[in-house]
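=== RUN LOG ===
request id: a7f3
mode: sequence -> structure
chains: 1
length: 142
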Amino acid sequence: MRISEDEIRKLTLEAIEELGGKATPDMVKMVVQKSVSKLGELPDEISSPNLTTGRIILTSFGINHPGIIAKITQTLSEAEIDIKDLSQKILDKFYTMIMIIDISNSPKNLKDIQEDMAKCAEELKIKIYLQHEDVFRYMHRI
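=== RESULT ===
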């Protein structure tokens, strides 16, 4: 049985509703995977449980001040992470930045990198979110 994109979308919405305010991308993915596996087929794109390699979407935002990009890129460099693309916008006193990074050659896994970036965000008094590209794609197909 082949599962359609509409069925995956429906399962994702159900998972988000079920999890409520505590929903994280990883939790939603886990609930959807369980639901799909009950149906008998897990699509190739989400069947791999290995989210420790590959491309990651890094989103950061907050009140602009000197050194934000320097600190974020320094933290990524120390973890041997390659920046593939970067978009930044400053609006008055606020900034936003989205990066596509590749952690394939990093000695750290996604969880360790998320912890490093959480420390970085705390020091800078900003928000930083990391999400595996595959999860990002599935979450935004809805």
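=== NOTES ===
Residues 88 and 97 are 4 Å apart (CA to CA).
The first strand starts at residue 55 and ends at 63.
=== END ===
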